[in-house]
Design a protein that fits this description.
The chain has 5 helices and 7 strands; from the N terminus they run αβαββαββααββ. It is an alpha+beta fold and 189 residues long. The C terminus is likely disordered.
Length: 189
């Protein structure tokens, strides 16, 4: 009975992810872009993950720059960052580090989420952005997600005319995306 309940919960999560992806894909054309202060958004997201990081005994660091204003849809941008954060939480061991960065680079704002831990094999890097790709960096062969997180990030960033990527670093992995800056100094509240 417990196994059946666990499988039902997994299927429910999969169906929910599919519905969210479908809704997002159909509404992207109708998104109203507003002026967003990315530092405020990132501070809000960091507060939400602070408790989970403490529970998992992960060191959560942030380096958030000023003047990071973009045009975007707040809900979708938050979803992209949340997907990176959940990915980092899933792949960071006890005592590991998650480092979130926000900085202005020429004509774009760059968001980076680094986590210490296993790197992504080069043969998998090109596939991780595909929907339903569930190759796991952990030793276990079981995956607890539907493989939609990075696909959603790709869709959101593309919708915002940005770029996205991943870099294997010496002791971990950094996922990043950029969104072009806005010329308007107004900020959404």
């Amino acid at each position: 009975l417990a196994s059946i309940q666990e499988e039902v919960e997994k299927m429910s999560g999969l169906v929910s992810g599919l519905l969210n992806t479908t809704v997002m894909e159909h509404h992207m054309e109708n998104v109203l872009l507003k002026t967003l202060n990315m530092k405020e958004i990132m501070e809000y997201i960091m507060l939400r993950y602070d408790g989970l990081a403490k529970k998992k005994r992960i060191h959560l660091e942030s380096f958030l720059g000023e003047d990071c204003i973009v045009h975007g849809d707040r809900e979708y941008v938050e979803q992209a960052v949340n997907n990176y954060m959940m990915n980092a939480m899933e792949h960071t061991e006890i005592g590991g580090i998650i480092r979130v960065t926000l900085r202005k680079e020429q004509d774009a704002v760059r968001v980076g989420v680094y986590n210490s831990g296993k790197q992504i094999p080069e043969k998998d890097v090109q596939h991780i952005w595909n929907g339903f790709y569930t190759k796991n960096r952990k030793e276990s062969t079981e995956c607890s997600h539907a493989g939609l997180g990075l696909y959603i990030v790709q869709s959101v960033v593309t919708m915002h005319n940005g770029k996205y990527g991943v870099e294997n670093l010496a002791e971990g992995v950094e996922f990043w995306f950029t969104i072009p800056v806005t010329a308007s100094p107004a900020v959404q509240k």
